Every structure is written in C-alpha cells, then in structure tokens.
Amino acid sequence: MTQVLVSLVAIVGTLLGAALGYLLQRHSADRSERKAAVLAYMGAITEVIREQQDWWHRKNEDTEGPDHRAARTEAHRLRGVARQAINGIAFYVSDQEVLDLAEATFRTASDVHRADSRDELDTKTELARESLRAFIHRASERVR
What we know:
Blueprint: H1 2-61, H2 66-92, H3 96-110, H4 118-143
Helix pairs in contact: 1-2, 1-3, 1-4, 2-3, 3-4
C-alpha cells in the first residue's frame, strides 16, 4: 500500500511539474512573440520616417526625376511593411491602447513627406519620433 501511495504521489508530482513547465514555457513564448511584434513595428516605423524624409528631399530636388519616383515607391513599400507590423501587434498584443498608438504613429510618420518647408519637415519628423517614443513607452509597459 505504501509503495502504491508513493508511486501515485510521484506520478501526480511528475504531471504537475510537466503542466507547470508547459505553462511557464507558453507564457515565455507568448511574451517573446509580443516583443518580436513590437520590435518589428518599431524598426518598420523608423524606416518609414527615414524614407519619408528621403522622399521629401528627392521631391524638392527634382519632382519629375527618377530619384523622386524611386523614393516615393520605396516609401510606399515601407508603409506596407509597417502596416504588416501593425497587424502583428494586433494579433499578438491584446491591448487596444498600444494598437491605437501604433496606428497614430503610423499616420504621423506617413505624413512627414507632406511638409512644405525644411522647418516643417523637421517639425513633422520630430512629431513622428515623439509619437514613436510614446508608443515604445506604452508598449514596453504592456509587453514585458
């Protein structure tokens, strides 16, 4: 009888250990997926801001030139990459405020090339970077 009881305790302990290990690994994997989604978005938005600036410069150098068309095409491509990254955030991060900040940052960053002057370009760029910093701050609180 004692051996049966010892065996049952060992089996229950093994099952509880396996279940707890699974739960901890799943939690860790979920957190890693959320972090990866946020990092992918941050990288994409940083590239969007940079390319929006390049688009503005190429447009002001030669509106009909091939460099302007190439910069515009690349800016649109990078906005598509950023949009995909937002979809990743929507999928992995179940926090509406983080998603709303990602969308707001995307809109602000996408508007940089519409500046009418160099000063406005600098202002729009800084607004986009501030929006990204706000996103990073909020996302880091929610994803860790």
